[in-house]
């Protein structure tokens, strides 16, 4: 059996944890620059607020609804996630961290009733030691465990724990016939549309499909999903996280930027951030995709542009990455166009040193990235950087977080105090 543990409404629950007065109120957590909704409390969901809704469209009704907003506090969320995952690992036979708020666990052997008792103790342990609510689904495969967890979240009578083998006869059949296929783990977007074109619109219809035909039409990944829905564990628990396939650094701007050179300076800074993440992972990038776009939510002219760069030498050094990103994107930008978002995607990642370079064939950049990392580790974040990123004057693309909660668990100056 496999258990999936999911922190309920994670970002919103993290905000309520340190500000209990928010409990029971409609609360949304917004993306970078307070742009769009990325998390909702149950009360906000009840108002019909959807993930991705832009704040400027909700602002007019916020006071009437009593809607509260918070800026994303990623440092707080990351710390709370680590606490939850470490705690869960101590109470299971195996763990695979799937996302910041979800992980798969191997429950102890036993009857369904014994495993449910284990899950309830685990739920209480997380609530007592970290303070966050979790839901737990237990089943014979990852995909079924995911469905069981969703049932645990949406059915209060379950107490937040559902075991696939402890439900009334016919329950799962009725549920899968009612659920759209997009409720299946990994089914969304174009894949869902292709399935619907084949007459597969519900979870039950996907479960009943021929797995070999699904493999031939799509891939072995979707075939495994069909097998998992039928109770055959085809996606094993991974106790080692695979190497990242790509690294993305992007941001929405607080205000529209009309100058291509300023957008270029922004992507150069994003490239430096990406280079730091590459060094942290011990990887180099061989290819870049750089992009900028206008807002899809605001009236006016639109422009979506991207550039693709093959690097002469795979690298994680900030200089070559920033120079390549800026030089490839700026000539494609239109002066006077109101750009609202830009970013850089690092691709063709490989472990550092895995791609040998013949000495003298191509000039190697100076390894200043490690120097920048060492200085910043000793004297503080952003003490040293390249170009405009090395100055302390506010950049036009700097993150706007008007309603940022304190970093309660990671900053001595922002610890919760009791008087």
Automatic annotation (TrEMBL):
CDD domains: PolY_Pol_V_umuC (cd01700). GO terms for cellular component: cytosol. Transmembrane segments: none annotated. Keywords: DNA damage, DNA repair, SOS mutagenesis, SOS response. The keyword Ribosomal protein does not apply. GO terms for biological process: DNA repair; error-prone translesion synthesis; SOS response. Belongs to the DNA polymerase type-Y family. This is Protein UmuC.
């Amino acid at each position: 059996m496999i258990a999936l543990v999911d922190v309920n409404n994670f970002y919103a629950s993290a905000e309520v944890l340190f500000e209990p007065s928010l409990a029971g109120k409609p609360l949304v957590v917004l993306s970078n620059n307070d742009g769009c909704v990325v998390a909702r409390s149950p009360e906000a969901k009840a108002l019909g607020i959807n993930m991705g809704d832009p704040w400027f469209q909700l602002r007019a009704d916020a006071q009437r609804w009593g809607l509260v907003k918070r800026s994303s506090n990623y440092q707080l969320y990351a710390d709370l996630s680590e606490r939850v995952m470490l705690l869960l690992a101590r109470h299971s036979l195996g763990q695979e961290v799937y996302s910041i708020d979800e992980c798969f666990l191997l429950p102890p052997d036993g009857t369904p009733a014994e495993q449910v008792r284990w899950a309830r103790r685990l739920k209480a342990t997380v609530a007592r030691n970290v303070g966050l609510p979790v839901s737990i689904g237990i089943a014979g495969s990852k995909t079924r465990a995911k469905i069981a967890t969703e049932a645990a979240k949406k059915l209060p009578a379950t107490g937040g724990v559902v075991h696939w083998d402890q439900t009334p006869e016919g329950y799962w059949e009725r549920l899968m016939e009612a659920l759209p296929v997009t409720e299946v783990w990994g089914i969304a977007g174009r894949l869902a549309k292709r399935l619907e074109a084949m007459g597969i619109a519900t979870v039950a219809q996907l479960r009943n499909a021929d797995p070999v035909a699904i493999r031939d039409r799509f891939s072995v990944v979707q075939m495994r999903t069909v097998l998992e829905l039928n109770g055959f564990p085809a996606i094993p628990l991974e106790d080692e996280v695979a190497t990242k396939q790509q690294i993305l650094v992007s941001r929405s701007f607080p205000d529209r930027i009309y100058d291509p050179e300023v957008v270029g300076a922004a992507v150069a800074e994003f490239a430096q951030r990406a280079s730091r993440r590459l060094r942290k992972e011990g990887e180099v990038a061989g290819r870049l995709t750089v992009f900028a776009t206008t807002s899809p939510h605001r009236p006016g002219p639109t422009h979506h542009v991207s550039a693709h760069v093959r690097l002469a030498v795979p690298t994680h050094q900030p200089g070559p990455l920033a120079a390549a990103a800026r030089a490839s994107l700026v000539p494609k930008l239109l002066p006077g166009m109101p750009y609202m978002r830009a970013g850089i995607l690092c691709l063709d990642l490989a472990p550092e040193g895995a791609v040998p370079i013949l000495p003298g064939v191509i000039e190697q950049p100076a390894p200043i990235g490690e120097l920048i990392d060492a200085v910043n580790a000793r004297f503080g974040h952003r003490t040293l950087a390249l170009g405009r990123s090395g100055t302390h004057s506010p950049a036009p693309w700097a993150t706007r977080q008007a309603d940022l909660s304190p970093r309660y668990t990671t900053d001595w100056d922002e610890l919760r105090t009791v008087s």
